[in-house]
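Hi L., both proteins are below.
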Amino acid sequence: LKFVSAGLRGEHKVHIAAMLKPIDRTVRSSLQIVAVFLSFGLVGLLTSYVVGGVLAALCGVYFLSVGFERPKPYHFRRITSYAQYAWLGKLSSRAFSAMDTVVLGVFVSSSFIGYYEAAWNLASMLAIFGVAISQALFPEMSQVSSEGDTEQVGDLVTDALSYTGLFLIPGFVGSLLVGDLVLRVYGGEFDQAMSVLVILVVARLVYEYGNQFITGLNALDRPDIAFRVNGVFVITNIVLNVGLVAAMGWIGAAIATGTSAVIATLLAYIKFNRLVSIELPLMEIGNQFSAASGMGIFILTCREVLP
């Protein structure tokens, strides 16, 4: 399924690739519910898992326009030369999403980890638009880069930066003003994670901006530079999490995540800007903050007068 999705994205059919996972989940869940009612047990659950993946992959193959060919030696060389750097990108993403929780497990009680995870889930939900932009624009960036039009890659990264904060910026203002109310959905005691939520939303915002530069570096066929940036992020994230959690508790985990994201984003911007001159969309980002501030004033007023 992942292989077919990658092929579709390479053909610029990102909209079709995006539908495969929902198809997989829908078919899998439906069959698993039926399997449970029919008392098929673990075999039924696992079979449903396989059937869902196979059906989704077949749907993707239908829309693939390229055929299957026997790979040649230079294909393996090119894949190997890219993969030796690209693997750290996955590790970096995993470290960003899980390292703080792992370190928290050593220093704080399980209840605080639950509060922290609730805040993290809310912050991650707001990042969905930036992630979608990165996945959608990468094939286009890669194609224009292979054609030698590196300036167009810079323009596409600028466009990505313009819209990355579309949910996260108002989400930041909202978390400041009503974050405690939203967290109470998980339970009354979860509102104490409000300060963590605010910091994590900022961390997600900065990280997603940095991710656009990383995507641009990979599109320029410079996974070696992206590798170094991701390496700095992983090391910084580990060191800061251990140090700050030990000193400050769960607030330290959020600060460590945000600080490491800032460092990695600045480094990614510097590295990318050396390859391609880029104009930061400060006006567009400023407009989003202005609109979010107007929303914040209205929400603050409502919170003062409404139950």
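That was the first. Here is the second:
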Amino acid sequence: GIDLSVGSIQALGSVLCGYYIVQLDISIWFGIPLVLLSGAACGAITGLFVAYLSLPSFVMSLAMMAMARGLSLVYSQGQPIVLGKAGAAITEFGSGRFLNVPMPVWLMAFIFIVAGITLNFTKYGRIIKAIGSNEEAVRLSGINVPRYVASVYVISGVLAATAGIIAASRTGIGSSQVGVGAELNVIAAVVIGGASLMGGRGGVINTLIGALILGVMTNLMNLAGVPGYHQQVWMGVIIAVAMLLHFSVTKIKN
């Protein structure tokens, strides 16, 4: 499966962060959970259609990508929402440091640790990997496959909304322009990390390494003065090469 809606849900999370806290004057302690719940709802809609109605994940997540981006424009009316004093705690988190390390990095590390433990040392994680390897075999073993598949999209929605909150905390505004083209970066990070788009292969640490490599390459292109539009071309080339290497190595092993 694949989720193309992460960038749009990130934008929706960023906008709703400002909408709930600033425009609706909801406390940050209730506003943030509402943002995460909104991301979960987006993921649940995609997951239910994919898991229970057997719609292609590419098509359904593409539809959610359009809907989430549209909702972010509706709630923001096409204008950035300044967090201001109401969202001071959020912006302080975005600019804060602990042991001279930015707070968002600590949050990222926490999420990766939890995800790594879940994927590698829990029944849930082992079932998710097994579904990626051979969904039919898992179904024949008596496991409720649709429930697990839908749950993955819910988790994806929550994490995308979290990214939107972080984006709002770093810039001090909720913007519908957040996450434009993020789908390409996400796919590139996962593929460079060695995950198989066919399922059953991949890991949290590898994905982190892929994201770091992608970040380093983006910074190198910026330092080299490569124009932004050209960077998109090279990013596509990087994905194609990574996929070619992945299939070549897999074929050799087989």
